[in-house]
């Protein structure tokens, strides 16, 4: 097999033909990562890393994704700090054995559940939150006592290099390693035997990860994407402004729509569509301005390839005709204006592929209840949003649709809630993390039963006879 120079450089520099895997395995075997003191020391080191390099991180995120420092703090740096603080506060409790009752038949005996680390784990990240999507799962993996290989996305190479250069300075380099590189490196890593693979990325690559993991029966967590819908029911006038602000945040506010839980498309009753669109236009102007040459507070598109992909989504003339706001592109700076489309064709690409950008199709329905059938006609989304005050409708949404999460009357904030499981279902992935769920994701909960020698129930042993059958 022949590899490109870039691949060989990456592998040669940090990987060294599997020696690192062996080193991490030896570290795990030594038992060093199992102790609570080691785990806490690594967690504190992540806090120090973030604290001492905050300005650098702001600069990197600004330069690679055009993120404003406030956005970077909210979605990356603050998220990581909060997760570390939470883990440090809870780790003793997470690690403590969980005792439970046994039926009388077992008497005298005791039972408990003990969480043990899985071993050596691989974490592969995506580019849209290049720091938090690597460090957040790492917090879970360390809390659970594993050794870890991290593979950040090649599409944010400065952030990846930052992690590769800084982590060995702050964290235990014999237990945690960063490997830089693209799909070739990722693929090579997937050939090794891991005790867990935690993957964040597209559904397409998720299938490759799962196929590679199957060869070793390695458990996987797949944090994937899809089309997240937002249902917008008719609301009292006072609530509309708050709701549309939250819609704008959920569409354009996090990495310019390049977010797995960002709103992909909206569903609204025909009679309410104009109100929604007019309110959204006002909010867009207030949040981002309306001068395409000087848009504020909005991230850029990650690269030319994705920029062209998004531009192509609008190329179909029926789709282009449905634009009711925006639609401008600044190719030099990779900026796309927040764009609203009203009723693009349902068979168009924009209505069938994950958009992952600032284009917002709004689909009108005669009755908002039809939104359930619409959502159910597509793969199960990672997040479902619904703005409604109708309790019966909320109940119907919960009972009749399936999604990784449901958030009523807001967007995105479910992601930052400690101990609130984050993950998909169906095509949007499986497994979950955040807080205790992260700890569990990287642990095996061992069932331990201990009997005493005092009492022995005769009928459980041979020789068999009919009396024992009736016992
Ligand atoms: P991607 O699947 O292209 O890449 C993700 C990672 O996989 C990268 O590190 C990349 O190097 C690696 N990779 C790419 N091709 C590979 C291959 N052939 N074999 C092995 N590894 C490979 O995804 P992306 O473009 O980085 O991210 C966008 C997607 O990720 C969207 O679908 C989005 O919804 C999803 N996403 C999901 C979450 C979540 O938490 N559920 C978060 C962010 C992004």
Automatic annotation (TrEMBL):
Q: Which domain of life is it from?
A: Eukaryota
Protein name from the UniProt record: Uncharacterized protein
């Amino acid at each position: 097999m022949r590899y490109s120079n870039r691949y060989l450089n990456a592998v040669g520099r940090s990987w060294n033909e599997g020696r690192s895997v062996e080193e991490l395995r030896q570290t795990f075997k030594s038992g060093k990562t199992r102790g609570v003191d080691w785990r806490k020391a690594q967690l504190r080191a992540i806090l120090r890393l973030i604290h001492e390099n905050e300005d650098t991180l702001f600069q990197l995120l600004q330069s690679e994704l055009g993120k404003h420092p406030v956005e970077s703090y909210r979605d990356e740096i603050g998220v990581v700090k909060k997760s570390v603080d939470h883990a440090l506060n809870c780790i003793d409790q997470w690690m403590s054995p969980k005792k439970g009752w046994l039926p009388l038949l077992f008497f005298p005996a005791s039972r408990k559940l003990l969480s043990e680390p899985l071993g050596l784990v691989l974490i592969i990240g995506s580019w849209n939150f290049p720091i938090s999507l690597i460090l957040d799962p790492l917090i879970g993996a360390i809390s659970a006592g594993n050794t870890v290989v991290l593979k950040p996305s090649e599409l944010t190479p400065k952030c990846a290099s930052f992690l590769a250069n800084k982590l060995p300075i702050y964290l235990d380099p014999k237990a945690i390693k960063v490997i830089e590189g693209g799909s070739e490196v990722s693929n090579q890593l997937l050939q090794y035997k891991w005790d867990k693979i935690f993957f964040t990325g597209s559904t397409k690559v998720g299938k490759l990860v799962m196929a590679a993991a199957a060869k070793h029966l390695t458990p996987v967590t797949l944090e994937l994407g899809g089309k997240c819908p937002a249902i917008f029911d008719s609301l009292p006038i006072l609530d509309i402004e708050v709701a549309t602000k939250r819609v704008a945040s959920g569409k354009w506010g996090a990495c310019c729509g390049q977010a797995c839980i960002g709103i992909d498309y909206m569903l609204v009753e025909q009679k309410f569509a104009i109100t929604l669109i007019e309110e959204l236009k006002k909010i867009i102007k207030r949040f981002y301005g309306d001068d395409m040459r000087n848009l504020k507070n909005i991230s850029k598109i990650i690269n030319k390839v994705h920029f062209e992909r998004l531009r192509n989504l609008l190329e179909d003339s029926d789709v282009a005709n449905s634009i009711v706001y925006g639609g401008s592109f600044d190719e030099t700076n990779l900026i796309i204006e927040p764009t609203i489309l009203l009723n693009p064709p349902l068979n168009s690409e924009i209505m069938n592929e994950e958009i992952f950008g600032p284009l917002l199709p709004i689909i009108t329905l005669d009755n908002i209840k039809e939104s359930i059938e619409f959502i159910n006609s597509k793969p199960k989304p990672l997040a479902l949003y619904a703005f409604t005050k109708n309790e019966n409708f909320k109940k119907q949404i919960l009972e009749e649709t399936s999604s990784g999460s449901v958030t009523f009357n807001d967007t995105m904030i479910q992601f930052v809630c400690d101990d609130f499981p984050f993950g998909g279902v169906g095509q949007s992935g499986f497994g979950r993390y955040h807080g205790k769920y992260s700890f569990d994701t990287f642990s095996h909960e061992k069932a331990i039963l201990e009997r005493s020698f005092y009492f022995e129930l005769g009928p459980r042993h041979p020789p068999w006879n009919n009396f024992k059958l009736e016992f």
